[in-house]
Amino acid sequence: MNDMSPPRRPARRLDLKDGRVDLTHGAGGRAMQQLIDEIFRPAFDNPMLARGDDQAAFDVAAGRMVMSTDSFVVSPLFFPGGDIGSLAVHGTVNDVAMSGARPLYLSAGFVIEEGFPLSELQRIAASMGDAARAAGVAVVTGDTKVVERGKADRLFINTAGIGTVAAGIDISGERARPGDAILVSGTMGDHGVAIMAHRAGLEFETTIVSDSASLAGLVADLVAAAPNIHVLRDPTRGGLAATLNEICHQSGVGMRLDEAKIPIRPDVLGACELLGLDALNVANEGKLVAIAPAAEADRLLAAMRAHPLGADASVIGEVIADHQRVVRMATRIGGERIVDWLAGEQLPRIC
Predict the structure, then answer these.
(1) pTM, whole model, 2 decimals?
(2) CA distances in angstroms from 97 to 127, 263, 271, listed in the order given
(3) Looking at residue 183, what DSSP letter applies?
């Protein structure tokens, strides 16, 4: 989509019911322009994209600019609670928002395998456009590549996001301090378990649904309620365990958690036991970790619980002084264990 020249009128429209992507759709010619005009342009329509340039030009707002990029290789492409399109928007919007920024613009790059159904591509693009509009961002530039059959595992999406953070807000993984409170905005492990259960064909008494969602609105409420937040992070790949270990290493601190206070849905916990997983290592796509001075914890928790995406929020522990930078957790049975990084690849292809 970096070649968004004014639309042409093809002799025959795409067969969006039974048609498939072929190599001509990525060759830079009329077929590629038709793919853009009939699938991507309607899904992402906005004035900047409609100009048809190879880049997007926009005014720079006051404050600091924030930028993030991510690539999405989820399998299956469609899962309970979302798909690779909405996931690509949510993942990148959330990474920008974790600085306290307001996300504004996205780019979208598609690597499509030859033979991919046009109906599925249209569905994914439409979902991506809907998610972007709901998050208050615009997809303003992009690119499309088609690779030979067997070279891309159906579809990969790369996104980059840009936002602005107001003066006076300084949120970073290196700002956790001993005595700070650690909060999570909701239940852990929903996204990863939803995908694993769907992929394995597992059935439970209730459907486990991905938590994929834009956290930009929640972050705006948190920053307004407690502008002295030290750290925000969304616990995606590697789950809560990896996220907290990352923060410990950035800030040079340790952490002490209370297992009983970490919210995990019973069906997710049961699925993890069945699959041999630790829910703390499982990815989330609509939850965040917040670390702030203990004096602000109650105000921050109230702001979380007042938002639809934070109804199950909880204070789960505290930051401690520890030169070894270890995350320790008091267990439900009265013991203590180390919450460590994953030693290997536990959940392939979930984001």
Answers:
(1) 0.92
(2) 21, 23, 30
(3) E
Main-chain dihedrals φ then ψ at residue 198, nearest 5 degrees = -65, -40
336: CB partners within 8 A, 6+ apart: 328, 329, 330
The residue to which tokens 């949120």 are assigned: 171
The arithmetic mean of pLDDT across residues 307-311, rounded, is 98
| Cα dihedral across residues 277, 280, 285, 286: positive or negative | positive
pLDDT surpassing 80 at residue 343: no
User: pLDDT at position 10, please?
Assistant: 46
Residues 6+ apart with CB under 8 A from 332: 259, 260
Residues composing the chain: 351
- Can you read off the two tokens belonging to residue 297? 């914890």
Give the integer Cα–Cα distance in Å for 229 and 170.
8
Distance CA 157, CA 74 (A): 9
Sign of dihedral through CA atoms 326, 272, 330, 237?
positive
CA 135 to chain centre: 12
Give the tens place of pLDDT for each residue, 214-243.
999 999 999 999 999 999 999 998 999 999
First-to-final CA distance of the chain? 23
Q: Which amino acid is at 34?
A: Q
Quote the CA–CA distance of 278 and 311 in Å, as a whole number.
Answer: 23
CA of 224: how far to CAs of 112, 168, 227, 228, 297, in Å?
41, 12, 6, 10, 14
The token pair that represents 265 in the structure block: 């849905």
Q: Which helix (H) or strand (E) holds 241?
A: helix 239-251
